[in-house]
Amino acid sequence: MKEDIKPSVVVDCLGLYCPMPIAMTREAIEKIDVGEVLLVEADDPAAEEDIRRWVNRVGHEIVKFEKDGGVMRFSIRKMK
């Protein structure tokens, strides 16, 4: 049975371009508790690589990634 991931916070970065999606993601993840999930929605093509690289660098975890047309949804679990 697949775990249903319920985000604590949703960050809407649709229509925003670098560096806004990563800046808003960083700001939002600081406000949630370890273990909680942040859902980031973005349509800037650069956001996919930017957010993946940032998550790996700071040690959080992308628990789910969806791409629907030009819209990407990252579910990021705060790990520390």
Please describe the structure with a list of short key phrases separated by commas or semicolons:
single chain; four-stranded mixed sheet; 30% helix; Translation Initiation Factor IF3; alpha+beta; globular; 80 residues
Give an overview of the whole structure.
There is one protein chain. The protein has helices spanning 20-29, 45-58; strands at 9-13, 37-42, 61-68, 71-77. Strand 3 and strand 4 form a beta hairpin. 30% of the residues lie in helices and 32% in strands. It has a single domain (9-77), classed as 2-Layer Sandwich (Translation Initiation Factor IF3). It is α+β, with helices and mostly antiparallel strands and 80 residues long. The longest helix has 14 residues, at 45-58. The protein is globular and about 30 Å long. Strands 1-2-4-3 form a 4-stranded mixed β-sheet, covered by helices on one side.
